UniProtKB/TrEMBL annotation:
This is K Homology domain-containing protein. It comes from Alexandrium catenella. Residues 39-96 form the K Homology domain. PROSITE patterns: KH_TYPE_1 (PS50084). Residues 1-31 are annotated as: Disordered. Keywords: RNA-binding. Gene3D superfamilies: K Homology domain, type 1 (3.30.1370.10).
Length: 112
């Protein structure tokens, strides 16, 4: 009876066969943390994409939980990442650079 391990898994793990799910998310690596990135409004708009499609693609690629806090008229906002910080930040930087609104390197151009 070596087949009993499957019965011990939570149901959501057995059902996690959707191709859009990351094959190695933050839970698989153990490299999990939390970080808040400061971004300009234009960068936040770039990262969200039309109808949220870009941020959803980033979430799918990284498996991270990404939340955006940006008051409507504010020139700056905050993006909090929970998951594999290094990978998620790298993907966000790559996406923003490809869209022509790159993030400054750490510490540059941040609000006071």
């Amino acid at each position: 009876g070596g087949q009993t391990q499957l019965d011990d898994l939570p149901g959501r793990l057995q059902d996690a066969g959707e191709p859009s799910q990351p094959t190695s998310g933050p839970l698989a690596t153990g490299n999990v943390g939390q970080k808040v990135l400061k971004m300009q409004a234009v960068q936040i708009r770039c990262m969200l994409g039309r109808g949220g499609e870009t941020i959803n693609a980033i979430r799918n690629r990284t498996g991270a939980d990404i939340k955006v806090k940006h008051p409507h008229k504010d020139p700056w906002g905050e993006v909090s990442i929970v998951g594999n910080i290094e990978r998620t930040e790298a993907v966000i930087r790559e996406v923003l650079a490809n869209k022509g609104c790159p993030l400054p390197e750490r510490g540059e151009d941040l609000p006071p």
